[in-house]
Write a structure and sequence with these properties.
Distance between the termini: 36 Å
Order of helices and strands: HHEHEHEEHEHEHHH
Shape: globular
Helix content: 25-40%
């Protein structure tokens, strides 16, 4: 996919909210969208991200998961148990989901195991800041604190520690495009990530 094939942010968010009316009802213009596109499988570590969301102070933030899989019912139960039904949304499968990555402000990939996740290249192509676990082939795509943030696997606390513990100046987030993994740092992404961190810290 090229950047020209990406939908606008508003178009992409509209597609998602059409599938999830409950999400639409709580959104505000300043809502921060965290997102993952993945199979609902144990290896993807989605339960870790959901538990991490619970540990974030009450912020105007939603976590949207696009995909289907065998763990859907367990994830639904976890969301209910943690009282996150207005924070975490399982949207289901959306055709050509890579075209609506522009709906998100931050892309998460909290996997327990991975090979070479092409979805991270697609997230980079959509100019999204990335937070991912340091497993498998992910470090071959993401350079920690340069092209994204890498966190230890299966550590829900560490997943969002950067919100409180790290100075903003460390996060030079750049686009990662499948045709050029050595692109210059994207100033736009750096500014975007800084603003998101500031919003979450307030």
């Amino acid at each position: 996919i090229t950047s020209g094939e990406l939908m606008t942010k508003d178009e992409a968010q509209t597609i998602i909210t059409q599938k999830t009316p409950a999400l639409k009802s709580i959104l505000r213009p300043e809502t921060i969208w965290l997102g993952t596109v993945a199979e609902l499988h144990t290896n993807k570590g989605l339960d870790i991200a959901i538990k991490a969301i619970k540990n974030i102070p009450d912020k105007n933030l939603v976590y949207v998961i696009i995909g289907e899989g065998e763990k859907r019912r367990l994830l639904e139960k976890l969301i209910q148990q943690l009282n996150l039904t207005e924070k975490v949304f399982l949207v289901g499968k959306i055709p050509d989901a890579r075209k609506i990555l522009s709906a998100f402000d931050i892309f998460l990939l909290p996997s327990r195991t991975e090979a070479f996740p092409y979805v991270l290249l697609e997230a980079g192509n959509a100019s999204l800041p990335v937070i991912a676990s340091r497993v498998g082939g992910i470090p071959e795509i993401i350079t920690d604190q340069k092209s994204g943030l890498l966190v230890p696997k299966e550590d829900e606390k560490k997943l969002f520690d950067w919100m409180q513990d790290q100075p903003n100046s460390q996060y030079y987030i750049r686009s990662i495009a499948p045709w050029d993994a050595e692109l210059e740092f994207a100033v736009e992404n750096y500014q975007k990530f800084n603003q998101i961190i500031n919003d979450l810290r307030q």
